[in-house]
Amino acid sequence: MLSAQTISEHASRDSCWIIVHGKVYDVTEFLDEHPGGSKIILKYAGNDATEAYEPIHPPNAIIDNLPSEKHLGDVDPSTVTKVVKVISEAENKRQALIAKRPPLNEILNLHDFEAIAKVILPDKAWAYYSSASDDEITIRENRAAYQRVWFRPRILRDVTVVDWSTTILGQKSSLPVYISATALGKLGHPDGELNLTRAAGKHGVIQMIPTLASCSFDEILDAAQPDQSLFLQLYVNRDRSITKRYVQHAEARGVKGLFITVDAPQLGRREKDMRMKFVGDDAGARVQENMSGVKKDEGVARAISSFIDPSLSWKDIPWFRGITKMPIILKGVSTPEDALLALEAGVQGIVLSNHGGRQLDTSRSGLENLIEIAAALKTRGPWPNPNFSVFVDGGVRRASDVLKALALGASAVGIGRGFLYAFCSYGEAGVEKAFKILGCIQEEFEMNLRLLGARNLNELVPEMVDASALQSHVGTPKDNLFDSTYQPLRLAEFKTAKL
């Protein structure tokens, strides 16, 4: 047992101890290796870092990344001065707004969840979740693309019974939709990604587990149903032994698909996130008092992502095929050229994705890329190809969006922010409500399939949509629901209103 006084004596770069969940760790040698940089750790040197650590780290992150000899023991609780946490006026206001949320039965669409999340989330969480790269053109285009595709419904077909269930990579799914990976769930809700896991298990929806989850991988697996299908999203680590161990552990625990993110050799500049100053102006570690060049404007995304390997290339695909028998999907493909290379590389599919508009701004939407990529893949074998799936994500808010993508050739569609905002707003119950809205309990999918004249997903064909305007980036009808929650970027501001 270590006293708080003893721990407080180790508050410098030369000797840096911190407390996390009542345990004391010597992180001195880890300072320069920390993905978020040394500054944020030094802010809590000699003190309890749990509150800052918990929302953006899995519980076991510090245990896994520090040698056992750096695990110093427990803090003696009798020596710790009880600190009365002062709740800010902003937090009191936020809690009051949470108490005044609309009841779930008044939530009619996924836009509603986003509107509520925007109001009740802490500013830092909203900035991280909603931000996109540079001028945020692509994130808006992802949504607008679906408004440029029009239905061509068929009539006088018996649609008394319609079925929208499917299989995704051989796994049964109640919807032609999977939960796409979104990071740091605990920024928005104390239970983080577990809200998704529990709801998905109840309703037969497949969840993709993010590498950068707030909950640990095993915590998520332990919360799943015994027969629940899960996928894994992978950021490839510079240390391939860590990646190999992670992938093989996931396979041993029954994960059914490996989605390797290939569009992020470096994370994009997300200015909303950067302006939140992940390391705040109040950084107060003694070691920082006279330190120059302390950067405080990189945002959450930059702070957690420095481990990602920018050298990842096509030559690595055989290595991945050699370490796992899981289907391998490349997440972040945008061109027919790369789609064909993926097919030739022997992977089992691709995701047409621009990372939710968070990477290369003014990239085209996955939906727009789908037409060219489907045409290219048709020249290389059967279509649809039973051994090569084509998924799409980005901008999906309604079942009608999903049906448009399926008609144009997608195997299934990923939704990330839509389900994220559902649990940020209402926890697990919010995710279940989102599933109900889409179609787990006969709502949007049933209505749209009937009105299209399709009894099941196999009857969705390209002739049921008019995508001729998809490549025209002007004249899209305004999406009032999306626009009402979209928060425009802002410029640098003066410190005071009066000069």
Automatic annotation (TrEMBL):
InterPro entries named among the record's database cross-references: Aldolase_TIM, Cyt_B5-like_heme/steroid-bd, Cyt_B5-like_heme/steroid_sf, Cyt_B5_heme-BS, FMN-dep_DH, FMN_HAD, FMN_hydac_DH_AS, L-MDH/L-LDH_FMN-bd
Keyword tags: Heme, Iron, Metal-binding, Oxidoreductase
Keyword Iron belongs to the record: yes
Cofactor: FMN
Domain of life: Eukaryota
Keyword Plastid: no
Domain Cytochrome b5 heme-binding: 1-76
Limits of the FMN hydroxy acid dehydrogenase domain: 102-470
Family (UniProt): Belongs to the cytochrome b5 family.
Protein name in UniProt: Glyoxylate dehydrogenase
Annotated source species: Lentinula lateritia
